[in-house]
User: What shape does this take?
Amino acid sequence: MLDSKAAVQAWNDYHVTTYIRPDFVIERGQGMTIYDDQGHEYTDWVAGIAVNSLGYGDKGIAVAIAEQVSTGVIHTSNLYHTRAQSQLAQTLVEKSFADRVFFSNSGAEANEGALKFARRVAYDSGNPDKIGVVTFSEAFHGRTLAALSLTPKEKYQKPFKPMMSNVTVGEFNSIESAKACINDSTAAVILEPIQGEGGINVASDEFLLAVRELCDQHQAILIFDEIQCGMGRTGTLWAYEQTPVTPDIMTVAKPLAAGLPIGAILCTQAVAEHIHPGDHGSTFAGGPVVTHVADYVVERISQPDFLEHVAEVGAYLKERLEEINSPLIVEVRGKGLMVGMQLSVPVAPAIQAGYENGLLLVNAGTETIRFIPPLIVEKAHVDELVEKLVSILESLND
Ligand SMILES: *Cc1c(COP(=O)(O)O)cnc(C)c1O
Assistant: This one.
């Protein structure tokens, strides 16, 4: 394999450059720490974008992968049964509102499937005008074309127009706006109970209740995108559990297998009844390796003491961030281990300074630093983070 210097060069020369990257190469990881090719250490507050919820080097994941690989079967397609896929479906149904599950390979793909499910339900209503989809400001639902159509960011959409038609964008957390957008021609309403990429914005209970009621009134399917906020991140297994509302469909992905690619569409029986053989499919989705790992991850994360740990360290993180006395901080917001710190200036220099101070940090929008660490993070890591952030913010303010 390439040495690390050649690897940076080869990426620059041969890969399509849709990402801007720092110039180190990740070599290995353990617990909360990533090590680069130069022997530098970074405490990871990004977790591969809220994916690596068990951190690095988790023994149970290695065992689960080895168990399935040792059978000789790493792929079957969805033409056949496997124990691993059935087990994960059962586990997810037992641990959520859902009656049924359909697997995908990524978050965007889970949202695409959820949209198809909702359109299928609307189709069966016999109302040919029932094709609308409502999304909200600052939402992020993925990069494929339909998911991008629901991600109302001009910069992301403009070069790729036309988007999917019949999409209406409401204002997040505005009941008035939801009322104006949702009507009898609405097939689906999609929202993140806590917006991730859009800046860590928490949906209010009143807003969610109003949206739920409007969906019921107009027979629209309510989809919660828990791809970032689900799977323990907020201190309960699912974010909706801390709201007064249950969706009809929930999409899950990022941390579901704690690092292997998987997504899932969880839905009620009332939705699933409308989906028939041939309506949807995937060659790779729900394969035996990834579903066996995901089942281990769901069982680990749903343990009450694991979730308590998330809630406790999350509350400590928010409290310590709120205590930082810097004129650059506008607001700290979020739930559990999904916390945003909005600054009055762009955060890119702070993220760069993080690399120099042994921290992996990520933005959400241009002015918010987003803290979405592995869920195994300890209070001592929070203390280290806060100490380093204080000096980074001071250097930015000079
Ligand atoms: C990341 C993300 C997606 C897209 O997931 P991919 O796996 O990147 O396709 C969709 N919705 C939310 C809320 C996300 O955070």
Summary: The mean pLDDT is 97.
